[in-house]
Amino acid sequence: MEIVVFGPVVGSIHIDYDHNGSLVRSCRHGESHEGQTSTVTLDYPDEYLTSISGCTNTDISIIQSLSIHSNRRKYGPIGDENGNPFSFRDKQIKDGKILGFFRKCSSYVNSIGAYIGPISHPHPFKTIGPFGNRDRNSWDDGKHPDIRQIDVVFDTEVESISIIYDNHGHHTIPFAHGEKGGGKFYSVRLVYPYEYLRLISGYLREHLGRHILQSISFSSNTRKYGPFGREVGIPFSGPSTGGKIVGFYGSCNGHLDSIGAYLEPVSHKHPMRTVGPFRGNGGSPWDDG
Question: Looking at domain 127-265, which CATH architecture does it have?
Fold first, then answer.
């Protein structure tokens, strides 16, 4: 990223992006000025942008200074800090990183905003579990792009589970396991495609040499669902790998006897959010995507 400061304002900015391992350079936003040039070079691929902050001049609708924040350090301030401060640090980004910039420019940079996407963490596990009793009555849903909905029937133990997966923008038929008795019913409906499952946990009860799934909880990237069942017995929890759950497998014999999950990295196909733009209304729109 190259930022040119001309006098008390940010005159121009252009950014080098990664596209599947190749360098893609944006056009220059703002005009080329004979000012002070500052270059922010990230230690790709281990370093990434997490936030921007700075100051604006609201009288003439321009950016006066910028600071660039990565997961390792702060770059800047670049420009004149005597203005109205702006920042979305720690407030609008959580477990995300900046993937692109947009907003308006004229002879100078009038405003700036950013696209935010999830961080795809490397994870050492492809499966977790199964938790519970393993027997011949096994089931395996395989892997799917995402999970849409989970219906759980439970009482003193988990009786059945039914999962609806995503099929490239459409939902699948329910994958049902166990027998639906007269227990309590709860439907976990994820806010697709923004919300995804990260973890399963629960309790097992030993009975006649067998482990029975006593309770289960599901944790997404936004909240925890459950517990469904009684939280007594032997606790279990899959490791938090930074990935997402894309399928389940296990066994059942009347009740749900065991459950495990398939994991994949969190990809950027989950829609990006935006933060900003920060100040002003002048200039022509630009958008790096």
Answer: Aligned Prism (2.100)
Of the candidates 225, 231, 273, 272, the residue with the CA atom closest to the CA atom of residue 245: 225
Question: Cβ contacts of residue 170 below 8 Å, gap of 6+?
Answer: none
Three-state DSSP string of 163-220? EEEEECCEECCCEEEECCCCCEEEEEECCCCCCCEEEEEEEEEEECCEEEEEEEEEEE
Region for residue 194 given its phi and psi (left: phi exceeds 0; alpha: psi -120 to 50; beta: otherwise)? alpha
Q: Note the pLDDT tens digit of each residue in 90-130.
A: 444 556 788 888 878 787 888 888 888 777 655 555 888 88
Q: State the DSSP code for 272.
A: P
pLDDT in tens, 35-51: 778 888 888 777 888 88
244-288 pLDDT, tens digit per residue, is 899 999 998 878 889 999 988 776 544 556 666 665 566 677 676
Residue in 174, 160, 187 with CA at minimum distance from that of residue 257 = 160
Is the separation of the CB atoms in 233 and 204 below 8 Å?
A: yes
200, 174 contact by CB (below 8 A): no
Contact 109, 62 (CB under 8 A): yes
> Rounded to two decimals, what is the model's pTM?
0.56
Answer whether 140's CB lies under 8 Å from 249's CB: yes
CA–CA gap between residue 250 and residue 124 (Å, rounded) = 21
Output the CA torsion 261→262→268→269 (10° steps): -90
Q: Which CATH number fits domain 2-121: 2.40.50.1020, 2.40.50.140, 2.100.10.30, 1.20.190.20?
A: 2.100.10.30
